[in-house]
Amino acid sequence: MPYSKPVIMVVDDDPAICALLKRSLVNNQWELSVFTSPEQALEYGKNNRIDLMITDISMPEMTGTELISRIKASKPDIPVIIISSSIDANVMEENARHGVVDYFKKPFNLDALKSRVMAKLSLASE
Description:
Elements: E1 7-11, H1 15-25, E2 31-35, H2 38-47, E3 52-55, H3 64-74, E4 80-84, H4 89-96, E5 102-105, H5 110-124
């Protein structure tokens, strides 16, 4: 079976954050699918493989929490990393029910995020 690169789906309504993550995470090991619309990301997720999702929480069309819930309904094992400028205990508790334990508060450290992505993808491949 040919090797296929892990697919990372990035969802943030801020195009600058999407561009930053695309520049920072693109490499020869991973493929990135980047969306500023949670609705478009959800549609993509219905028909495509996703090995890791990175999402904001506060977005106008749909919250990141709702997106996580809807994606995990069909892909329960997908690891998720949340990036957001406002992360409170309620958000953390609600998302913990979906197995989300990784949160990065904006502005976040790119090296720390990359390390977490690598760790999540290596755990997912085991």
